[in-house]
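User: Fold this; tokens only.

Assistant: Input:
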Amino acid sequence: MKNKCVYLFLLLILNAACSHSDKEFQPDLQFDFSIPTEGNSWVVDNAVKNDDLIGDQGIKGWTNRETKIRTYFKTEKTGTLDIGLIARSEAAAKIKVTLNGNSKIVEANSANFDTVEVGRFEIVEPGYHFIEVEGVEKKGTSFPAIESFLIGGEATTGNVWFAKEDFYWGRRGPSVHLGFQVPENAGNVVYFYNEINVPEGNDVLGSYFMANGFGQGYFGIQVNSEDERRVLFSVWSPYETNDPTEIPEDQQIKLLKKGEGVHTGEFGNEGSGGQSYYKFMWKTGTSYKFLLKGTPAGNNFTDYTAWFYAPEVNEWKLIASFSRPKTNTYLTNLYSFLENFYTETGNITRLGNFANQWIYTSNNEWVEITTVKFTADATARKESRMDYAGGVNGNQFFLKNCGFFSETTTIDSYFEREEGGMAPVVKFEDLP
């Protein structure tokens, strides 16, 4: 009897020691932030699947084991990072959760959204990171629906950035701009000349590389689909509305002329006005030229005309000429921008180079523009997305956005490029 009691006592001590050991390897996790997957997650290498698998309440309808989904966030600090997730599952399912090459497998089996602890990881560098999930096994028809990821620990003691609201704009990513600084006493700007070169691999679906922006519109090139690209020129109506059918007749943009093969019509949703576009499969690594004219036409109208030059064609092409009522001005507020208009590709970086900016003034002379102000939109300014950059590289400016790169350019900073000194050779009287 005595030996039996001693055995039971030793067994209790051993069990207690094992329990204590388990706690050392399974620390209590701390969660300070909840990252909504609806606004911060993308399917890897399959933009089409984003709309199918990521929407209201986050990740859902995920059935394929081969699918990988990444959720992005940026940290200011390094150190330990505790990870959990809010998920529900119609039946028990296991998923693999990976951060910086380290993985843990967890199981979700609650029919209601509940916390699933993943574990403790390490952040060794500040900047953008992603939590990747992929399926391991499931007893039901789909893997867990994931509403959000939970993070905490040393790495979250500084700033932590991710989209917290307004997920449509957060998924599109930040738009970036170059505001061209016209020299004082240059005279009225009649023509604005610019060039764009998109490096290989940066022609991401949904990109708009806008070359010649002005106070009343914009002009540039887009990637609209795998087999369609456009040269786009638009002029806003002076009547402020997102519905073009509401514009009074005396404030509508009038089409004066359009080039062969150019489509024209109205646009809305971001102001309204007249729009024209020419389908043209422009290429990466090629410099394209843009020329815009804006002059008062009398009776409180201003005429705007856009021409596009592709080296493959070797001549200037008229895109369109519009007349804008209640306007009496030359070209003002000259700028370029880079934006993404497809939420599905907000996780992919794109970059454009902008070179050789010149204006032709009412003094009948070319003036080179070498200074810009770098700015970004509200998505960047409210720090929903921090993957934006711009500046100068030798004799050209550049803009870069999306894809969750960590380097950020200070908004409202100025840059100056090297002078080229060679004015464009344009015979205005020969323009179509």
